[in-house]
Amino acid sequence: MIKFEHVSVQYKNADGRYALNDVSMEIKDGEFVFLTGPSGAGKSTIMKLLLREETPKTGTILVDDYDLNSLKTRKIPFYRRNLGIVFQDYKLFEKSTVYENVAFAMRAVGAPSKIIRKRVEGILDILDIKDKYNKFPHQLSGGERQRVAVARAVVNNPSIIIADEATSNLDIKLRNEIMQILTGFNNSGKTVIVITHDLSIVEKFNKRVITLNKGELVSDTKNGGVANE
Fold this sequence. Notes:
alpha/beta; single chain
């Protein structure tokens, strides 16, 4: 469960504008949510808060058993193990193979080598890129690179997957493929948050849509109806 209660984040520049202003929302375990809005709406700020890269000026943020306001610095890496992040620009290691890129996430948490190999091979198979095992990122298409990014995000079996503009650099066919992959993980019980400004993707998938504008939550609906009453 993710819960924002009257969360505000203020810019530290001279005009004192709010990146988020009194935002309250709750995302239940296993939900699939689109987070939308124009540039500067506050989407990136919400992601930074969820990653615990920032803390709010006012309000509280709860994620599962963690109170992010009071979370000690030494516990942040343990908290982040619950999160799988898919970035817009992939953030792959260009001098590492597909296998090494995905295995890195498990090595970072000290998983045994045998477990790493089994899990990585399984994820690559699910995402239909097992044949790219020994390829380097520059040898992959954009869609394949994004699949590797998804594989790395989910290999540690996180409870929450956050995709940050993960389809914006892809053509329509590949966008739909990545969305189907994320939907599949959601169907297996994962909470999925897709941060996007691509309304064509939002309209295609009948999911909950939280819309921000100028730091405020302006709507919270499901395609065709209200999500939260």
